[in-house]
Amino acid sequence: MMRESKHFSAYNYRMYAVRRVRDAFRENKNVKDPAEIQALVNKAKRDLEIIRRQNQEKPRT
Fold it and tell me: How many CB atoms lie within 10 A of CB 34?
């Protein structure tokens, strides 16, 4: 997620995405429940797809 976040061309978007990823990992670093960990992994996968979609270059018309 960090790698994909760094592909935003706009500095503010890039730094916001990097900060959100870092904060989410720090916030959840002590989670021990396997079900909750799986839910967080699934959320991270959805977020990664959003980041990838937003980073795709828009076709020029």
Answer: 8
Query: Helix crossing, 11-27 with 34-55: angle to 10°?
Result: 170
Single pTM value for the model: 0.71
Q: What is the DSSP letter of 31?
A: -
Identify the residue whose tokens are 């978007």: 13
pLDDT digits (tens, 9 = 90+) for 18-52: 888 899 999 999 999 999 999 999 998 998 888 88
Using CA atoms, how far apart are residues 32 and 10, in angstroms rounded to an integer?
Answer: 36
Q: Are the C-beta atoms of 21 and 1 separated by less than 8 Å?
A: yes
**What does DSSP assign to residue 56?**
S
